[in-house]
Amino acid sequence: MRERRKVIISGVVQGVGFRPFIYRLANDRGLTGFIRNTSKGVDIEVEGSADKIRIFLTDVRTRKPVAANIYAIRQHKIRLIYDKGFRIVSSRIEKGFTQISPDIATCSACYSEFMDRKDRRYLYPFINCTNCGPRYSIIINTPYDRRSTSMKEFEMCPQCQHEFEDVDDRRFHAQPDCCELCGPQYSLFTSKNRLVNGDPIKNTIRLLKKGEIIAIKGIGGFHIACDARQGKTIERLRKLKNRPTKPFAIMVGDSNRDQVAYISRAEHSRLLSPPAPILLLRKKPHNPVNRAVAPNNPYIGIIAPYVPMHYMLLDQVPFFLMTSANRADEPIAFSREQVMANLSGIVSFCLDHDRDIENRCDDSVGYVASDKKFMIIRRSRGLAPAPLTIPFQVKPSLGVGPFLKNTFTLANKSEAYMSPHIGDLDNLETMVFYKEMTQKYQRWFKIEPELIVHDMHPEYLSTKIANDLPGKKIAVQHHVAHIAAVLAENSVNDKVIGIAYDGTGYGEDGRIWGGEFFAGTIRNLKRAAHLRYLPLPGGEVSIIKPYRIAIAYYYKLLGQKIGRNKWRTEARSIWNMIDKNIGLVETSSMGRLFDCVAGLIGVTEEITYEAEAAINLEYMTKKGVKTFYQYAIEDNDIMIIDPSKILKGILYDLKKGIDPGVISAKFHNTVTEFTLDMVQRLAGKYSTDKICLSGGVFQNRYLLERIIDRIRTAGFKVYLHQNLPTNDGCISYGQVVYGNMRERKERI
Ligand code: ZN
Ligand code: ZN
Ligand code: FE
């Protein structure tokens, strides 16, 4: 039976070779009709035998191009037209959303050509096709075509032009298509901006081998690279970058990767997936990489080559360190001028190329959990700006995001566009980057926000930015945004218990929250329980020196004066502050409780990057410990978890000389126990069996796995983030979601 169907596909289906794929699929089956890009995805009409159309539709899902991401396929029967052949027709872009594909790692077909001596693009480092290459990072404007990208500077040679126009060619409509004759080129410069003669990539290899530190231009910005086997070079880089312990990631090729880390099949395919993220993998004990890359760390961040040039370097330097080229917390450098201005003291050479980076983005980071789920830690290159969905209709809105690990989210109707990772909004460079990106997003996605959602903290720069923008403003509490984000990502409408274990977030009562339980729905979340408020002496300084938190908590909760001799003076002033109740910030933060324990055990005296002490505490946990400490829960209207007995138990163990690794495991187990206890109480009180988790503390894999396991075994349903990080990278999305709910209620 002959029929005709209209098929509407939404998702990331533009700039990823989707139209030629459909064209071939339809032609192979002898189906007629057409496909065109629309502002939301693609529209297809197909006509032919019902059987063939059915197979066609299955193939669309199962054989789609690797970089395509289908969100939904809707289809219905329409009238027969009896047209001849299948065509690709021009786009129909209405006002509204347009799509931008994230950048895509070099595909296997391009890699084969790249390595093929007979191919005209043999060893041409900018080889790309419809399935791979730069996208987001080169876009100037939408809709996405060559004239609106930084490839506009390069006029296609006749051969490339021919490929571009030939629907049967795998470079049909590949906007960044180019070759040695017509495309970009690399060149190498000294840190004094002098051109180095000779083959730029061969020279880079020679210099890396010699132990030089080099800035290398990639897709979303420059990296600082050096040989990951040379300890002295890495130590020098650590000194220059003022980064004593924070782990670096390394790039390793296929053949050498399993020398460095244990890699499961799921991890392997994630490494080689189109976004090519940095994956945290369990390190092998004896590996060729210098230990200075990730000292005292059971994991190592590994990234696969994702542009052709990476393969050329790896051929000669099999393990190289890669880190975003920036000073401390500033955004990644994207031009040689920036490298020269800011990094000439760190790098001695700069491998540049002449295709501009229009939009910078750092490498994305994640890990594969034991249930094979990909857990995102930083959502950036390869992932942004793919749209996220919101399970209800929102106004044109902007979520300005948090203070640390900022991202913003621009949304309209049921679609949300989150920026790549921007960074900590505490320096001018980042602020400039932030403002530039919010403007670009508004232009590209044609959303003029009517609702601006910001944090409750009146002093945050993001709050100040929000206040300067036109439109209605709504403040959403940090941890409410965390929970709203998980709920929306999982389309949960029912009543839930939301647990936010986090570092810092400004609370509704002006105190610092971070060990929070909420009850309610996505429309209305109410604080139901929290960790006891405890004093943070001197605020920020105690976050850097975790032993100060131990001194304060022990004195406040147990009246005990703990602390080593070298801390005596500091301890005295802290006790004094508590006695007189001056200079204290009260906090219910779970992150600080971890700091307290880490500080007491003496894991990390002073942290040099966020959550370092808590991370080290996690890494020292002894396997196989099942015991835990006593704790108390006060059953008030808002319940309180009191850690007094926990601290008492830890001090007792410490004095008995118990292995700190055992103490750490027992502490982690205790947090698991009281979490389950609280879940059971609140689930009864609010009659729900749905639990959702968010917050930076859940980046602790030991804790997260145990909490999930215990809560599930007890019969609850657990919801986690799907496409967003559990850290503050999810906040702007949660702000948009909850801000719209609040705004609706205000109107009614
Ligand atoms: Zn390709
Ligand atoms: Zn060409
Ligand atoms: Fe947070």
Automatic annotation (TrEMBL):
It catalyses: C-terminal L-cysteinyl-[HypE protein] + carbamoyl phosphate + ATP + H2O = C-terminal S-carboxamide-L-cysteinyl-[HypE protein] + AMP + phosphate + diphosphate + H(+); an acyl phosphate + H2O = a carboxylate + phosphate + H(+). It comes from the Bacteria. Gene3D superfamilies: 3.30.110.120, 3.30.420.360, 3.30.420.40, 3.90.870.50. Keywords: Hydrolase, Ligase, Metal-binding, Transferase, Zinc, Zinc-finger. InterPro entries: Acylphosphatase-like_dom, Acylphosphatase-like_dom_sf, Acylphosphatase_CS, ATPase_NBD, Carbamoyltrans_HypF-like, Carbamoyltransferase_HypF, DHBP_synth_RibB-like_a/b_dom, HypF_C. It holds the Pfam family HypF_C_2. One of its GO terms (biological process) is protein maturation. GO terms for molecular function: acylphosphatase activity; carboxyl- or carbamoyltransferase activity; double-stranded RNA binding; ligase activity; zinc ion binding. The active site is at residues 19, 37. Residues 4-90 form the Acylphosphatase-like domain. Its EC number is 6.2.-.-. PROSITE patterns: ACYLPHOSPHATASE_1, ACYLPHOSPHATASE_3, YRDC. Pathway: Protein modification; [NiFe] hydrogenase maturation. Residues 198-382 form the YrdC-like domain. PANTHER family: CARBAMOYLTRANSFERASE, CARBAMOYLTRANSFERASE HYPF. Belongs to the carbamoyltransferase HypF family. This is Carbamoyltransferase. It comes from candidate division WOR-3 bacterium RBG_13_43_14.
